[in-house]
Amino acid sequence: MRAALLPTFALLLAACGARSTLVPSDSASTRGNGGAGGASSSSVTSGSSSSASSSVGGGYPGCDALVVVDPVAVAPTPTLARAPEIGLPDQSGEVFLSFIEATFDAPGALRAVRMAPFVEWPPPEFGAFLDLDTDIFDYVTGPGPAGPVALLRHASGGGEALLATTFLPHIEGIGLFSGGDDLLFVTAIPDRYFAAQADEVPGYNVLDVGSYQPNSLPQSEDPYVCITSRVLGAAVPSGTGFLAAFAEPNPPKPATCDPLFPLPGSVVSLMRYESPAGFGSFLDRKQGERLGAVEPLVHLKMAPASFGAWVVFQTDGSTSRVQPGVVALRVDTGAQQLVPGEIIRVSPDGVTWGPIAVAALGDALVVAWVEAIDPSAPTIMVQIVAPDGTLGAATSIPTNVAWLKDRLRLQASADARGILVAWESDLGAALIGLARIDCIGGL
Q1: Distance CA 301, CA 338 (A)
Q2: Residue 153: closest CA among 114, 197, 119
Q3: How far apart are CA 229 and CA 249, in angstroms?
Q4: What are phi and psi for residue 402, nearest 5 degrees?
Q5: In this structure, are residues 322 and 16 in contact, taking their beta carbons and an 8 Å threshold?
Q6: How far is residue 267's CA from residue 292's CA, in Å, rounded to a whole number?
Q7: Which of 154, 171, 237, 382 has its CA 20 to 30 A from that of 346?
Q8: Beta-bridge partner residues of 74
C-alpha cells in the first residue's frame, strides 16, 4: 500500500498492412469475425471467464439515425478560449460549458456557463459567465454525486494538482498531487474522490493515482507504473467504488518502478476499486483482466453502463503500415470482459488520427474520432455502439467553421436522445466548436 500524501488545503475562489491486434498479456491466441455496419470485429482468447450474458442494454431508447442539427456553431465566448469541458451540472437538463480564457497553451482564467443546447439551438449569446479561478494551465472535469468535480493545475505554485470537490458555481479544492505533467481523469462517488495524473521524468513516464475522503488526508493508490510510452488512464463510478483502466507494460512490473528497464504501455489493465466504509481507508484494489497489444496505447477512455463500463482504446501504429482503428470492449462490475475475448472495431484501420471522445447514451456507447482522409478540414465521426456490442447509427461533423485542433468532448442528454459535441478549434485564434446531434427513431 502506498503512503498517504501530505495535505495542502486550498480554497479556490472565483487499409492494408498489419493490424494492431489485442491479445491476452500472457497469450497470443487470436481469431476474427465480421462486425456490424461494415466494420470488422475481432475476438481474443481471454485468460479468465465471465458469467455475464451478452444480452444487455437497459436504459437505451435506440436510434435509427443520427442527425447533426444546423448549424455547427462557434461558442459565443467573450474572448479567446481553449480547453473545453462539458457535462451535466444537475438534473435540470442543462449542460455546463467550461473553458480557459487564453490562447493556445497559455494559462488564463477558468470560466463556465450553463446552457440548454437540447432545447435551444444554436446557443444564444451567453449572459453572465461564472468566474471559477485564475492562472489555470490545464484542467479536466468528471461526474460526481452532487455535480461535476475537477482536477486543476495552476501555472504557478510548483505545478500542484488540485482536486475540486465542487466545481459549480464555485470551486473548493484540496491539493492531491505534487508536480505532474498531464491530468488524466477525475470522478467521484459519495464520500470518495478518485483521480490520476502523469509525470514525465528522464527516460520514462510515471502514473500517479490518488483518492480523497472529505475531512481526511489525500492519499496515493496503486498501481504505480513506469512506462516509456504515454501514460493513459480512465475511470468511472461503479456502485460503491470505481472501474478503471490503465496502460501498463507487458510483462507486468512490480509495484515499484524500475527506471533501468522501463517498457512501453502496451497492456489495457482493468481494475476494480472498492471504497471501504472505514474513515481514512485506502481503496481496496482488485486486479481485473489484462489485455495486451502488439503496440503501445495512444488513447484509453471509459464510459459507464449498468453492466459495468465500456473501455475504448487505440494503439499508436508504430509497427503497422496504417494507423490502427479505435476499438471497444464491455467490462462487468468485477473488471472482467463481459463477453470473453470480444473486441469491437469502432472505426476502420487507416482513417483515424487526433483526439477521441466517448460518452454513455443510456447503456449504449457514443464514440467520436477524427477522420484522417479529409483534406479540406478535419471531420469528426460519431458512432453509436449498441448495448449488445453491434455498431449502430453514425454521422459526421465537418469542422470547416471551427477547425479542430485538440481537445474533443461528448455529452449525452439526460434522456439519451441528444449528444453535444465540443472541441478546441483553431482558425487563427483559440475557439470552441459546438455541434448538436439528435437521435432519430428508436423507441
Answers
A1: 17
A2: 197
A3: 9
A4: -155, 80
A5: yes
A6: 4
A7: 237
A8: 433
Asked if the structure places residue 273 within a domain, the reply is: yes
Q: 373 near 48, Cβ under 8 Å?
A: no
Helix, strand or coil, per DSSP, at residue 438 = strand
Asked, for residue 2, whether it belongs to a domain, the answer is: no
Euclidean distance between CA atoms 65 and 44, whole angstroms: 31
Which range of residues forms the domain containing residue 215?
A: 8-440
CA–centroid distance for 211 within its chain: 18
1, part of any domain: no
Q: Residue 38: phi, psi to the nearest 5? A: 85, -10
Average pLDDT over residues 214-237: 93
By the 10 Å C-beta count (0-12 exposed, 13-18 middle, 19+ buried), 58 is classed as: exposed
Closest CA to 331 of 50, 129, 96: 50
Cβ-based neighbours of 433, under 8 Å, separated by 6 or more: 72, 73, 74, 75, 399, 401, 402, 404, 421, 422, 423, 424, 425
- 419 in Cβ contact with 361 (< 8 Å): yes
**Is residue 298 in a domain?**
yes
Q: List the grid coordinates of 185.
A: 481523469
Question: Per-residue pLDDT tens for 136-172?
Answer: 999 999 999 999 999 999 998 777 899 999 999 999 8
Query: In terms of pTM, does the model score above 0.90?
Result: no
Q: Count how many domains the chain has.
A: 1
Residue burial 230-267, b: 16+ Cβ < 10 Å; e: rest: bbbbbbbbbeebbbbbbbbbbebbeeebeeeebbbbbb
